[in-house]
Amino acid sequence: MLAVGPNGVGKTNLLEALHVATQGFSPRTRTDAQLVRFGDPGARVAVRGRRGEVTLDLEVTVEPGAGKRAKLNGAPLRAAEQLRSEAATLVFTPDRLGVVKGAPAARRAYFDRALGRLAPARAALPAEYGAAVAQRNAALRRAAGGWSSRDAIAPWTEQVATLGAELVTARVETLAALEPHFAERAGELGLLGGALRYEGEPPTREALEQRLDRDLERGATSLGPHLDDVVLASGDRELRSFGSQGEQRLAVLALLLAEAELIAERRGVPPLLLLDDVLSELDPERRRILAARVSGAGQALVTATDAAMLPADPDQLLEVSPGRAA
Ligand SMILES: Nc1ncnc2c1ncn2[C@@H]1O[C@H](COP(=O)(O)OP(=O)(O)OP(=O)(O)O)[C@@H](O)[C@H]1O
Ligand SMILES: [Mg+2]
Q1: Which DSSP symbol is given to 176?
Q2: Is CATH 3.40.50.300 the classification given to domain 1-88+269-326?
Q3: What's the 85 CA to ligand 1 centre distance in angstroms?
Q4: What span, in angstroms and rounded, lies between the C-alpha atoms of 192 and 285?
Q5: What is the position in ligand 1's atom list of the atom closest to the CA of 38?
Q6: Is the pTM of this model over 0.85?
């Protein structure tokens, strides 16, 4: 489906509403109150759709102060975020370029979310590891301040080593699963030799202990996957530093398409694709390749300011005007 309309009419708003309804949170902000129309007491989005052959009725309500509630086929869920295990949605917004050109933290966050989507049983691992690092850092500062002994750090060092090694393994496995699909989709879009490399080693207790003096001085753990990075490359070119704007966009799209294929393989149903402003900056040939790939990939919503930007006939064309889409 293609949603078109001039700047500021509400295309991104519509796409965001679909994300909130299917995943329980916004891809743009963690502050749910921002989802409510200025001056209104709350917001509600209700969506009826299909997941394979199954019909789903999803509803999310946000009331600042009272919080967020979600229903699946009429039954309330414990947390809106539970929708994530019911429906898979992948989103491209121009902000996503940060995955390629941003700081390592943006890549870690992105690949950790991908890890959660592709291996739901390990979805909590990044947060558990993060909590262990925070506890160890607090223990380091207490010991450095003389409020507790150095021995009190050891259990947290152990936790950081154990959970850190698990997290590195999970990330490396996620990248290994994504990489062949990424290379294929990137190649099709003209980025040859697409590769994903993990930069970092599993932290060991010994290596952490060797750095204990330095860590005590800094009050922070200086080794582990909270400092690692992922390199996205085309051949021997690192795209973060040497990719053009358009190439960086293609790399993000190739990653998204790669993950969509893996989700389709693993869950048996392709994810919903939400592609905001994806066509700008791409040349006509690449738009054509992307359009063909997206139309064969399940359900998708693409936004553009002009229908002529999509070099294919969409199954459905929505004209967006303020407060309306028809
Ligand atoms: N909480 C809010 N309440 C009311 N209006 C809002 C709120 N947040 C944003 N807006 C406004 O909604 C309008 C529609 O924004 P939206 O980002 O959906 O436009 P768009 O069609 O995607 O435009 P573009 O083509 O420039 O990307 C904007 O004018 C924006 O300022
Ligand atoms: Mg927009």
Answers
A1: H
A2: yes
A3: 29
A4: 16
A5: 3
A6: yes
